[in-house]
Amino acid sequence: MQSTFGKMLKITISGESHGEQIGVRMQGFPANEAVDLQAVEAFLRRRAPGNDPFSTTRKEPDKPEVLSGIANDVTDGAAIEAIIHNQNQHSNDYESLRFIPRPSHADYPARVKYGESLDLRGGGHFSGRLTAPLCFAGAICLQYLARRGIYIGAHIAQIADVKDDRFDAVKVSKEDFDALHKKPFCVINSKAGTQMQTRILQARSEGDSVGGVIEVAVVGLPVGLGTPLYDGLESRLAANFFGIPAVKGVDFGSGFDAALMRGSQHNDAYTVDPENGEIRTLTNHAGGCVGAITTGMPLILRAAFKPTPSIAKTQLSVDLQTKETVELNIKGRHDPCIVPRALPVTEAMAAITITDLLLEDA
Amino acid sequence: MQSTFGKMLKITISGESHGEQIGVRMQGFPANEAVDLQAVEAFLRRRAPGNDPFSTTRKEPDKPEVLSGIANDVTDGAAIEAIIHNQNQHSNDYESLRFIPRPSHADYPARVKYGESLDLRGGGHFSGRLTAPLCFAGAICLQYLARRGIYIGAHIAQIADVKDDRFDAVKVSKEDFDALHKKPFCVINSKAGTQMQTRILQARSEGDSVGGVIEVAVVGLPVGLGTPLYDGLESRLAANFFGIPAVKGVDFGSGFDAALMRGSQHNDAYTVDPENGEIRTLTNHAGGCVGAITTGMPLILRAAFKPTPSIAKTQLSVDLQTKETVELNIKGRHDPCIVPRALPVTEAMAAITITDLLLEDA
Amino acid sequence: MQSTFGKMLKITISGESHGEQIGVRMQGFPANEAVDLQAVEAFLRRRAPGNDPFSTTRKEPDKPEVLSGIANDVTDGAAIEAIIHNQNQHSNDYESLRFIPRPSHADYPARVKYGESLDLRGGGHFSGRLTAPLCFAGAICLQYLARRGIYIGAHIAQIADVKDDRFDAVKVSKEDFDALHKKPFCVINSKAGTQMQTRILQARSEGDSVGGVIEVAVVGLPVGLGTPLYDGLESRLAANFFGIPAVKGVDFGSGFDAALMRGSQHNDAYTVDPENGEIRTLTNHAGGCVGAITTGMPLILRAAFKPTPSIAKTQLSVDLQTKETVELNIKGRHDPCIVPRALPVTEAMAAITITDLLLEDA
Amino acid sequence: MQSTFGKMLKITISGESHGEQIGVRMQGFPANEAVDLQAVEAFLRRRAPGNDPFSTTRKEPDKPEVLSGIANDVTDGAAIEAIIHNQNQHSNDYESLRFIPRPSHADYPARVKYGESLDLRGGGHFSGRLTAPLCFAGAICLQYLARRGIYIGAHIAQIADVKDDRFDAVKVSKEDFDALHKKPFCVINSKAGTQMQTRILQARSEGDSVGGVIEVAVVGLPVGLGTPLYDGLESRLAANFFGIPAVKGVDFGSGFDAALMRGSQHNDAYTVDPENGEIRTLTNHAGGCVGAITTGMPLILRAAFKPTPSIAKTQLSVDLQTKETVELNIKGRHDPCIVPRALPVTEAMAAITITDLLLEDA
């Protein structure tokens, strides 16, 4: 397996759900950048479970320990390495699943690819738990970007059939993000938020789960960031977002809704901003990106998350040893909806990707 | 600019819309593979414009000339290089646009990024014309895959508000693709096809354009292809698909619809195929991919295309020299809907990506 | 900093000389490969210091701890991670050097590049100590190669002005390597070895150090391994060998001596091996590599090592704060000659590089 | 085959010795950089054959044709592509060699690797002819570097047993390079040059060839360029230099001679330059590079070239079809010594590598 991504800023995620530790290595991050580790820990707490009835009851303090690269709250040029010690493993929950692949988990294809010795307890390296070290790296990038006037925010755009309002693609701002980050349940429209919570609790009470959509915005980007066409801004962001467990779709700006639009509706007319004399567009259906490079307007992307595959309801599977169909009952503690906890992960991934592109264009 | 993508199989696209030639270079393609150049040319003709009222009237014979890498219809191990001579350039159509960026084209961000000397006539290197050499590479990969029992097909899933039926995600087969490839307008449901054509012709008559969605399927894939998580199957496919001009969204399997589903609906239960004793899933909401590696079920992906940005209708823009708002009337010949011509491009891109992954896992 | 190399097999070296731990991560190593960890530890002991009067008296048990990727002595497909806890740090030896760069160490350019916060105690990440985790990775690759009939050996080819015999470039074999590995001082010609030891001890007694050359051979390679020209076999090996601290030159086969030869001498005539009917060359001035791909003959490379830069003798340097010339006396324990301990490092680096190339050509 | 190298600046070399054209593509070179194409052509003429009795009589005008990326003598941000049309092919000279591999050419391993269809006339893609497009790219980089105060020069350091003086590793300057570039036979010591010419002519008269060494210097480099350890300055330069046909050894600074030195001799003591107050070293045995990053002193590297493998003298080979030993007489026109014509190639390769590293550190 290879769990490294990025070009100038290379992120490596290591460890397994039920091993002793998980970790992250950031290669290529600049020296002499301030790091507020308390803010990093606060960011990680947004992802940590056990805070509310919408997530698993598994408790993880998720306190990162820095091994190298940061000295006296400043990056020193060495690769930044941090580990998080695992706790609270219930690996006996998983032993019975050794030869019975869980539907919509990687168990079966991973067994075929790697063989029997691969440790898949708790999902092994495929586990959503590995997004904790990702958030560590993302938190450092968010600080780096904020010092350059670039801000990132995300909200729950949809849970089941309930949709939140969308970001104003032209006017969305740091202030909107600040307001969202103060909310315990991160939506723009609180009424929609209440309905979403009902959907999640209802699924949980039925031993089931629900999916959803997250919308992410990035403001303050320069014009022209990215590489034209292949390996461009959208390619990099999409590739990295599909590395977040459970993501099954990514679109930018109007995205899939663009299919419904006429060119005369979708095209973003240019104008001169009367306040600062800068060129911008009247609308932003492009989501801040044309030809795989930024337009300077807010970057808007959405990521679709499938419902959590681990559910309490009885499911059908096959015993790989006997090749007989079996009924599967997954024990353990699981999120009835991964979306609320995935919010900081999407912000982290956007921050990492944008930082990498900025370093490349520097 | 960098226009290279792929890991083991590196594809480089070169040239500009209104230059003398465009080309493609395939590095890392295996030696001793048969190439049917007539089939390659036939594949390119599917992308070529001027065949019907739904596309631009610009005529391009698009006959590729092989410079190296293929001898006596067999790859010889050298990098495969082919060029296509441009014809029928109307570059004077574009001269007036030099300082007036066309909405939803890369003109403005590219000007800011690269400066004034960049040649953007006809979109320059950003032009959809550059998908012709991509199809050359894809056609060779399609032949390579077919010899290994892997087949790829695509259909127009949506134009404006009209939707085609979707592929049967469990049973879709080579025969379905063969049937589609015989149709002049590539849809499963002919009635939907007729409505789609109406939408396109209506937009054209109003000097406007429409968007759409393409659904691509790949059958015959082995179990376990791809790399877990980052840089995995979905990441690579998505990254490459966002390199196709006008793509604004990509999803896999149920994709964005997964947000609407319960886990108990979305999870694909395992079963043993009574015909061949192999393990497969009863449904395929995952679209053939879990944990970023293949499940062995058909790979299903959708790509959303924005409406063609070049429209005859008057639009607003800004003169970059005077910084005044101007009315823009784009001349030239344009596709009222890019989707029908993009079909072979999506098949080509899927073929290139899958070939690259197979070479990596070999 | 980025300390990752390799294409299919990515090796990442982490940690610093005087931190708590150093480590290695191997991404892309195949699953289901046996690993004899006792043999790995035995290989690491060949590099460990303190065994004889030719090396530093710093003692390091260098016992690696495997975090992931190996279960029940078999690789399981996950990335292989191992750490080695540092001991016996004398970091106060270095504090006085904070602003006085040691000649021929990276201190000065690293200070300019990264700034003052970089931790350079003991050389930091530049330290030769980081070759211990490299040997861990190399030992696993050596086992992988041996199962495929590929063997690697190295000997001290030169210390100061004393030269060992060279490998027989045509006939060198696994048996030669086995014999060398049994010797406490790894030379072919024992008389030369005794003279070399005298040179080292003499330098040590004078508070000085000496350089040398290591010759490495690889036998059992297939014909055609590598990529033509750029990024080929010699490029990859050379790039990786220059990553070994203190290496200042690399050549292949006759190498720099080829400059002295006529084409009629240097050209390796082809013949058919009467024993097995296979094609080989009568001589092997090419060192097993032509056009950047293997010929099937033994691969022969030499690496030149500069004398250990840390010496007891007084040296001149500059105080970076006062910009005054100062006399520098380096304390601490240092190797009077790095070459004997670098032998397993060269074998490890050759093994890692060859494994990477084999995985790419698979 | 893959013939691309570089990280931020990717160079792709295309074509074959006896095909219609050869070419180069530069991806990632900055926009808005002036290009003096006449100077580029003058640089290419230094490599062109047929100018003197020391090289092949094959005449090649080597006039590059720019396809994209340069407009009005300025780079415009698009990839720079140039082709050179081949002329004067004598491919029938090679037909008889189809199944008889030439000693010390890539013929045999390439046949095994790629099979029979590979076109190896004139060496195919392995031919030294492919260094012409490399010089095109290098010439553009040399202009880029010169505008930043970085200059590169090379001289023939050795032919057979005759050695030129070496560069003064501390004081070498642009003026030295200018003086060298005016000489028809590029040596520091003219007496040595005369002897070298005698060696070459003598070898030619005997149907033989000779090898040699080139020394390259780069002045004006900033302190701290490169990446520590793996993939550092020496690794990148060495990897790229081994991509030049016939290079069999590379060393930096004292290089292989460092083996002969004591640490007290080899270490470069720091001092403060009385003229400008900058820190430099009194000697430069390191060749301007420690820990894989630049020290700010002149970068000094040497590359060893094997004797031209194509010689008129009868050689032994094997007929791959009959597996019988045969006498081989190579016809065609060949350089009795490749070193004089390789001089600009080494300057080009150094310029390309340094430019890539500067773009990465930017």
What secondary-structure arrangement, pairings included, does this model have?
The structure is a homotetramer of 362-residue chains.
Chain A: E1 4-5, E2 10-15, E3 21-27, H1 37-47, E4 64-68, E5 70-71, E6 74-75, E7 80-85, H2 92-95, H3 107-114, H4 131-146, E8 151-159, E9 162-163, H5 174-182, H6 190-205, E10 212-219, H7 233-241, E11 247-252, H8 263-266, E12 270-272, E13 279-281, E14 289-290, E15 293-294, E16 299-305, E17 315-319, E18 324-328, H9 339-361
Antiparallel strand pairs in A: 1-2, 2-3, 3-7, 4-7, 5-6, 8-9, 8-10, 10-16, 11-16, 12-13, 14-15, 17-18
Structural account:
The structure is a homotetramer of 362-residue chains. Chain A is α+β, with helices and mostly antiparallel strands. The first copy, chain A, has nine helices and 18 strands. The first copy, chain A, has a single domain, classed as Chorismate synthase, AroC fold. Chain A has helices at residues 37-47, 92-95, 107-114, 131-146, 174-182, 190-205, 233-241, 263-266, 339-361; strands at 4-5, 10-15, 21-27, 64-68, 70-71, 74-75, 80-85, 151-159, 162-163, 212-219, 247-252, 270-272, 279-281, 289-290, 293-294, 299-305, 315-319, 324-328. In chain A, a hairpin with a 5-residue loop joins strand 2 (10-15) and strand 3 (21-27). Chain A is globular and about 70 Å long. Chains in contact: A-B, A-C, A-D, B-C, B-D, C-D. The interface between A and C is large, with 37 and 37 residues. Strand 11 of chain C pairs antiparallel with strand 11 (247-252) of chain D, so a sheet runs across the interface.
